[in-house]
Design a protein that fits this description.
Length: 95
């Protein structure tokens, strides 16, 4: 049996004073990162933020589309969509 795979839609706010998972934004999750939107810094910060919020290694998260956009899709390995949604909802409540 293979490990679960899922993807998440994100709306990213770079350069934020308070990084974290904000909550739902339409069909996406809104997240804030402190890193600026230059040279991939915000993308790296998104991966780090999600790794902490989802409790998965950074190596299992990758930005699959929207590298230069606020709207991104990330792929997750080893985590189902339902588990990811529940963990992000819990992280949003703590922010």
């Amino acid at each position: 049996m293979s490990a679960p795979r899922s993807s998440l839609r994100l709306r990213v706010v770079p350069g934020a004073a308070r990084p974290g998972v904000v909550g739902r934004h339409g069909d996406a999750w809104k997240v804030r990162v402190a890193a600026p939107a230059e040279a991939g810094k915000a993308n790296a910060a998104v991966v780090t933020l999600l790794a902490g919020a989802l409790d998965v290694p950074r190596s299992r998260i990758s930005v699959t589309s929207g590298r230069s956009s606020r709207d991104k899709v990330v792929a997750l390995e080893g985590l189902s969509s339902d588990a990811a949604e529940a963990r992000l909802a819990a992280a949003a409540e703590q922010t």
